[in-house]
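thread from #wetlab-drylab

HS: before we spend reagent money on co-crystallization trials with fructose -6-phosphate, can we at least see a predicted complex? here's what I'd submit
DV: go for it
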Amino acid sequence: MPSRAVGLGPARMLALMAELPTQLKNGFREGTEQTPPLPPGLRQVTVAGMGGSAIAGDLVTSLTSAETELDLQVVRSYELPRPIRAPGWLVAISYSGNTQETLHAYAEAGRRGMPRLAITSGGELGERAARDGVPILAVPSGGPPRAWVGFLLGTLLGALDAAFPRSNEARLKEAAQELSARWPELAEEGGLPARLAAAVGARLPTICAEPSLAGLARRWKTQVEENAKRGATFEILPEMFHNAVVGWDRAGVLDRSSRALLFLDWSGSLPQIRPRREYLMGLLQERKVPVVHVPLASLDHLGAILEGIAVGDLFSLALARQDGIDPMPTEAIDRMKAATGGGAPAAPSKRSRPARKRATR
Ligand code: F6R
């Protein structure tokens, strides 16, 4: 059972969340400086990772699929799909460096002769990469993996910067500045995330977004789960019109009082989705299902993703506060890893970096 003695956990997590803009910039620098040049014809890049490490891959995929020729996909498993092979690259992301699934996929990519990168704070992955001469993009250690989303996202974006028509450096800097300027207003007691949490209350939140924000919707879900220690789900439009809508259509008294839908609203959403989205809103209103809108103001896709991370992180923190839950520990994950072997948490030494061996491959 989650502890009710929250202590310094909420303040520590809030401080880590506030580092998002700085982490982005530092991570981007690490990614651009430590990654060998992307071969001109590179089309396939696979990110292998789990949980708070893999999410950086989903978030970057939203951008690469819209703006580049790269086929970037995220594998959350031990096995790599058969078509994943050289000359495609494998980027293994594991904050702790000790995650079983990621280590397995890293080894498999080696057997397939794929060029690899390791994004990690050390652990077994750091050791193996140093031994294998694989470039290490170093993440500072200290705090849980999910609190390093800014650094991981920045690093991956930096590593793949050359695949974009223009460098993301200035864009990222601008988005980070906008976020820093908005942070005090978002983090205050009556800010948007706190109001969203109050509107959701004790209900099970389902986060809905269109495909360009799919990674963000997943991030919201996992942050609620890990920080507030309660359930959450996510749905992607337009797919939800073809299945989930049936369940919501029959939303009875029980659903109405126990579930809430949150829509991540962004002006860059697909225009084709709008009529069906309006239809769904009408239906939900008729069924009296609580709907909460999350406005993402940035006109830029990357800006909207960063804004969404900040609002979602603070939302999860506000839910934890409502329930008197410490957002920091995720003992259930630690117990699972201990019981099933492998996956020790990252070393607690703050801001230390893994030994790095520069290499070209
Ligand atoms: C997030 C979290 C987990 C881990 C996951 C993989 O804070 O604790 O989701 O991210 O168990 O571990 P790493 O990221 O160390 O590879």
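DV: Strands lie at 44-49, 71-75, 89-94, 116-120, 136-138, 204-209, 233-236, 259-266, 291-296.
HS: ok that's useful, forwarding to the group
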